[in-house]
Amino acid sequence: MCTVLAFASHSAKGGDREPEISADKARKGYRIPEFTLPERKGGEVSFGGGTDRGRYTVIQHGSSGCFFSLASIKMLVEIEEKYGGRFDLITVWRDGDRDIWLNTDPLNTKGLIAWTDLLDDGSVDKYFKIKISPPLSF
Q1: β-pair type (116-119, 7-8)
Q2: How many CB atoms are closer than 10 A to CB 3?
Q3: Which residues contact 58 (CB under 8 A, 6 or more apart)?
Q4: Ordered structural domains, the chain, with CATH
Q5: pLDDT at site 109
Q6: Distance of alpha carbon 8 from alpha carbon 25, whole angstroms
């Protein structure tokens, strides 16, 4: 099952604030149900619910219209390069529209994504009670 390790969120001013996520779904070791979402390449990908073979999964929740979501991709690339293979990385976009998800990238950072890249149908945001982007679920 997909295991949530931690949760982080930052305000627009760069300071830490209380996560906008249900605490019971963000604690270390919490196992989430399975989600199946469309991927950028076409088709669908499932995660959670026993599909991760006991590995930790980092889930980045983002929006194509959010500067911080797009800017965080470079940070995730660095993390992936340094720690790759120790966990699975998934980006879940809350754009609501496939065209926006595929064609909106003002910082030209989406092309750096070499990990699982999915469009949320609303189920992941609803489950984690996410109201803003870009929170990270580790």
Answers
A1: unpaired
A2: 18
A3: 5, 76, 79, 87, 88, 89, 90, 136, 137, 138
A4: 3-137 (3.40.30.10)
A5: 93
A6: 13
- Check: pTM over 0.85? Answer yes or no: no
Token pair 């929006």 in the structure block, residue: 63
Tokens 């099952």 belong to which residue? Answer: 1
pLDDT in tens, 73-90: 999 999 999 987 888 889
Assign 3-class secondary structure to the chain. Answer: CCEECCEECECCCCCECCCCCCHHHCCCCEECCCEEEEECCCCEEEECCCCCCCCEEEEEEECCCCHHHHHHHHHHHHHHHHHCCCCEEEEEECCCCHHHHHHCCCCCCHHHCCCEEEECCCHHHHHHCCCCCCCEEC
**Given this model, what pLDDT does residue 16 score?**
41
Contact predicate 20/9, CB 8 Å: yes
pLDDT of 18-68, one tens digit each? Answer: 334 454 555 566 677 889 999 998 999 998 876 555 677 888 888 898 888
